[in-house]
Amino acid sequence: MRAGQDHQAREHYGDRIFHGGTAGELARLEALAAAFDPASRRWLAALGVGHGWRCLDVGAGPGSLTRWLAGQVGEDGEVVAVDRDTRFLERISHPRLRVVQADLTVEDPPLPGGYDLVHARFVLMHLREREELLDRLVSYLRPGGFLLVSDAADLASQSSPDHAFRRTMTGMWQALAATIGTDGQWGRQYPAALARRGLRVLGMAAELPVVSAASPLGVFWGLTFRECRAAISAHTDVRDETVDRALEYLGEPDTRDLSMAMIGGWGRRPG
Ligand SMILES: C[S@@+](CC[C@H](N)C(=O)[O-])C[C@H]1O[C@@H](n2cnc3c(N)ncnc32)[C@H](O)[C@@H]1O
User: What range does the record give for the signal peptide (predicted)?
Assistant: First the structure.
């Protein structure tokens, strides 16, 4: 996977949209983590992650799960966190944590491989090279090691009772696909995608948090719609007034809705 002219000409996650230096980006990622960390931690704990494990967290972002993993592996374990933008990870100081800055779509970072656990959450869905990257993530596992990948499948926003919320969500996924190449239904592929790579598929689950003014996922959508507003206007027929109405809906005290699910798939490399 090398940077060709085609790659350089295209826009990617973090170039403009979701840039780590944007005011609000850390708060947006922290809201996402608050919505989904409890489920991710449950799934990781069920795999048995514990003392002595060597873990790789790919696209670790603000590092809430990285920090949690570092607390699980004990003195003999290690957690490596990779991201193209490590500014949020640099805030975490933990003796078991090593941070590696690398753009996974253009380089093979100097990782030793042989991990007991490889984890990636809400990363592959945003990368056009997701199929090749999933191959790479599997290759980083030791025989008998575990992969946990989690991504979006928007299961519920199209049945929302609110027209503006439905339209804005549709516009946002279309705008992200047109700009950075996001696939908002990628999590839906996991049973087949893991089995095709020779993993023994051990589990699959979906987490579907409530969207309300006070819920982490409601806060996340408010910040995400604001971040994507210009791209929605430029790439779809969803109007700015519709985005405004969706933001009002998210702020109303009575709003209780559903939207994107996180689909987690976990499997084990034979051997
Ligand atoms: C939506 S955030 C998810 C963060 C974290 N995994 C979580 O769930 O809390 C996506 C992360 O993937 C990282 N990322 C995006 N493209 C990347 C690439 N090509 N190489 C490495 N990391 C990348 C971003 O910088 C960001 O931290």
Answer: none
